[in-house]
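User: For documentation purposes, I need each entry recorded in a consistent format: the amino acid sequence on its own, followed directly by the corresponding structure tokens. There are two entries in this batch. Please keep commentary to a minimum and don't merge the entries.

Assistant: Recorded as requested. Entry 1:
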Amino acid sequence: MLARFDELAAEAGVELTLAELLPAIAVAGQPAGTLTDAGAARLDPAGRLHPGIPLCPPEGDAGTGMVATNSVAPRTGNVSAGTSVFAMVVLEQELGRVHRELDLVTTPAGDPVAMVHCNNGASELDAWAGLFAEFARALGAEVDPSKVFGTLFAAALDGASDGGGMLAYNYLSGEPITGLEEGRPLFLRSPDSRLSLGTFMRTHLYSSLATLRIGMDVLQKVEGVRLDRMFAHGGLFRTEGVAQRFLAAAIDTPVSVGDVAAEGGAWGIAVLAAFAADRSSGRSSPEQSLADYLDGAVFTGASLHTVEPDPADVEGFDAFMQRYVAGLPVERAAVEHVSPAPRGGDE
């Protein structure tokens, strides 16, 4: 692609090549220059910011999120679950072939990472929780939204491990992993399924992780990728021990949650800056890996709670996924035959 661009540019009379305009690639721990006089003045016209400040290689939110969750070593990864859901898995080697379900990025240290990104996450769960809260208010009860979520999530623990014949698709928008350009939120059940609160909520929690599971199956079952642990963070995991347990079942891998990601990506880039500063000052060895630095200097004593996959949950999630994949034509038919409601109507 670089060569093709250069050919077209040359035809237009441009002498520079694109490679000369792109920044150099640097990995975590390497120096990335210092703040210039012009840069300091641009960032802080008041003059309090001094030139000469050392810079570390910049990172986007994917890389800083890996650092903030201590997920940069091979066979580790992290799942973020909120409005959307994505998993980042650090690979021991390159994938064998291209998969449409996966994107490839790297850790800040340059190790290959496979990313499973799902457009739809917890928004449909939010909608159902809002409906239950509205019902409670209609009964004259004032409830804290966080208590509504906690109560509904806790009920899911008593639901049927396989979803009890219920299915839900949380597709408020399209979902590339399942080949859908649009979405229609959908709930259905077999005539003999028992409509209980626990199973209903477990079905919706399973649904929020189902598309992720499809992408993870490509990694784990097709490519043979092995995981020692997965770190989970995001709104879906705020109720202790529920979504964490179901994620462990979905990917058949131990799942950890804790306070290590509380500060997010801004904190992650600060850690990368400290890693570069410690190397340049001699406080850490130039041979020390980013993973060792995080383990030894940053996350020592961090509070983590790890859940192992429960065999009954693993078996139940597998059964749910068989129905989920088999029912995808129903979701596609809903997209084809059910038009979105017009905006601006009565709610």
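Entry 2:
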Amino acid sequence: MAQNKELIILTEGAIVTAAAQALAFVPHSVGISSIEVVYGLIPMAIFALRRGLKAGLMAGLVWGLLDMLLRGLSTGSVMNPLQGFIEYPIAFGAIGLIGLGSYKVKQTISNGKNSLGWILAFSALGFSVKYLFHFIAGGIFWAAFAPKGMNPWIYSLVINGGSFIANMIMMLVLVIILHKVFNQLIMVKK
């Protein structure tokens, strides 16, 4: 029985990771800057809340490796191994921290209460840690790309902070509009 459950979680994780990666190919830059709306964060957040921390971290890590191989290396977004490691497997793996809220969100849903606040709070945790890693990498590795005369840390904060805000707005809008759907996707049927 336990092996069957693990196989189901592994299969769900593979499907969600593939969906997140497929969504990465949808154009997602906002305006003329490098601020990005990452659509794959939504299925990953649902999966982490559905299956917990360990499964969320693993799916995020695999998504990061996949995105690095399929997009990062081909677009020149990997400058060196350390930067690639920080911005792909580590940063994407951090999305799995949303899984820390799995029990609390499921308990809230089971009690018939509104889970919106908890979903957003734990999503903010995972998203903020992801963009913290991008911010650090931006200040260190992407400094040469900052506009002339601009502090590279400020530039990294604007780009990565803007991406964090854009993704939280996307999450907020989707959770409000599709709240009942989110609840059904998060709850595991026995």
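Summary note for entry 2:
The chain is about 75% helix and 0% strand.
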